[in-house]
Amino acid sequence: MPTDVSGARRGLQGIHPTMTSVGKVWGAAARGLAMAAVMGATAAPMVASAQPAAPAPVAPTGLSESVAATVNDGIISTYDLSQRMRLLLATSGVQPTQQNLPQIQREALISLVDERLQIQELRRVEKEQKFDIVANDEEVDEEIAQIARGNNMSLDQFAGQLKAQGVYDSLREQIRAQISWQRWMRGRYGQRLRIGDDQIKAALQHAVAAASKPQYQVSEVFLDAARVGGMEVAMQGAAQLVTQMQQGAPFPAVARQFSASATAASGGDAGWVSAGEFPAEVDQVLEQMRPGQLSQPIAVSDGVYIVYLRDKRSGAGSTLVHLKQVAIPVPQSASADAVEAARAKLAALKPALTGCDNLEAEAGKTQGVVAGDLGEAEVKDLAPAFRDVAQSLQPGQLSDPIRTAAGLHLIAVCGRRAVGGAEGLDRDQIENRLYGQQMSMLSRRYMRDLRNSATIETR
Q1: Cβ atoms 344, 410 nearer than 8 A
Q2: Which domains are seen in the chain, by residue range?
Q3: Per-residue model confidence as pLDDT tens digits over 40-56
Q4: Are 193 and 438 in contact (CB under 8 A)?
Q5: CA-to-CA distance for 198 and 368, rounded, in angstroms?
Q6: Which residues, 6+ apart, have CB-to-CB distance to 333 below 8 Å?
Q7: Integer Cα distance of 212 and 203 in angstroms
Q8: What's the pLDDT score for residue 283?
Q9: How many whole angstroms from its chain centre is CA 21?
């Protein structure tokens, strides 16, 4: 059975349902109150800090609390909404602006509606089945304590920072809902959910076949167009998130708060993927990107992606070689005698070079000779003269002098390895991944049914 990852730090958002639609545009009064409460707030990621953050400005006095939404017979107040917006800002690193506040408010309301539906359903099940499901205060405290330790802070320091930002109560309720919902989902489906050998075998075969394609280490944010109110809204929201990340908002924090993908739980980390695992529009962008680059919004059929390319490698069958060289600079215009003299000097030096270990030290003893490590490169990307040597020599062997436009070179092959294969596949990891995907799908279906049968109104 796959390992049960508990807690609000990992796994929980992976099965946290997504909201297909809230159904109405915000009322002007609710939007104005939320903007007034948030615009002055200092938003910073939750990271280790020697001192608690300075208190965030509170909502102006004189504004009365009103109803932002109703979920069946439950109320979400404008105070609840403004506090959740503060929490989203504090944990994502996004800075509030007039342009992104509607997106922040939308995300805050979606999460609050989902949590209300979850807690209402769990209270109903508790009443029918006579056992506790909803997490108690002690369990919530323990989760927050573990988050604090992950940020190198004591519980008191962490709680103090959250209280100063005005988000502590909202975080507690978010964690309570996440713990409780995961507990119920695993209790209801965990024992019945089985990953068969045929599923694992098929996943392994797919991974082996994909290993021959280029592979990308990717982090992703996916904005579901249906969830956020349409493709135009999704594109605008994605553009605002790209701007915020370019200005310093951490990609993992943004993904956890805004992404509708199951990878949101791990900060958007999709791991190593092959061409074809993302929509074609995303693959086309990845092909053109270099490691370290952040994409612009990428529209697909059902939403918008933002991808960050962390690394890139060729598929199976590609070979990397580690090369070193000993060289004498000889310009292309040099006389035949000068070229021959350089060739003779390298030929005389070659017997003293017993391998890559002593190459640089020995070459340094001869005047006019330079030596250096060329690093690792893919064989097909080498210059033709070097490529032939890399393909024909074994590790530890040294070439004869090679003439190039820059001079004459002795090339040593110091290492060779195949890359991009499926040798790192782990059966347990594949089983855990499939288990998580199926649990996520069951959770989304459950929440879809709850939403369809619920009465949800926004004011």
Answers
A1: no
A2: 28-194 (1.10.4030.10), 212-316 (3.10.50.40), 318-419 (3.10.50.40)
A3: 333 333 333 333 333 34
A4: yes
A5: 64
A6: none
A7: 15
A8: 92
A9: 25
Pure H helices in 302-419? 336-349, 359-363, 384-392
pLDDT at 394: 85
Give me the residue label for tokens 């209801």. 188
Q: Residue 380 carries which DSSP code?
A: G
Q: What is the CA radius of gyration of the chain?
A: 29
Tokens of 49: 């800090």
Alpha carbon distance 332, 338 (integer Å): 11
| Residue ranges in 196-279 assigned as alpha helix (H) | 197-210, 225-228, 231-246, 251-258
CA atoms of 329 and 384, how far apart (whole Å)? 19
Residues pairing with 416 in the sheet: 321
The 3-class secondary structure across 248-265, one letter per residue, is CCCHHHHHHHHCCCHHHH
**What is the residue type of 163?**
K
The side-by-side arrangement of strands in the sheet containing 74-77 is 74-77, 67-71, 456-458
Tokens representing 397? Answer: 């062997």
**Residue-level length of the chain:** 459
pLDDT at residue 208, as a whole number: 66
Residue 224 and residue 106 in contact, taking contact as beta carbons nearer than 8 Å: no
Rounded Cα gap, residues 174 and 191, in angstroms: 26
CA terminus-to-terminus distance, the chain: 45
User: Token match 């990621």: residue?
Assistant: 45
Provide the whole-model pTM. 0.59
Sorted by sequence, the CB contacts under 8 Å of residue 354 that are 6+ apart come out as none
- pLDDT tens, residue by residue, 254-292: 998 888 887 887 889 988 888 778 899 999 999 999 999
Q: Cβ atoms within 10 A of the Cβ of 45, count?
A: 17
User: Is the separation of the CB atoms in 268 and 183 below 8 Å?
Assistant: no
Residue 99's pLDDT is what? Answer: 81
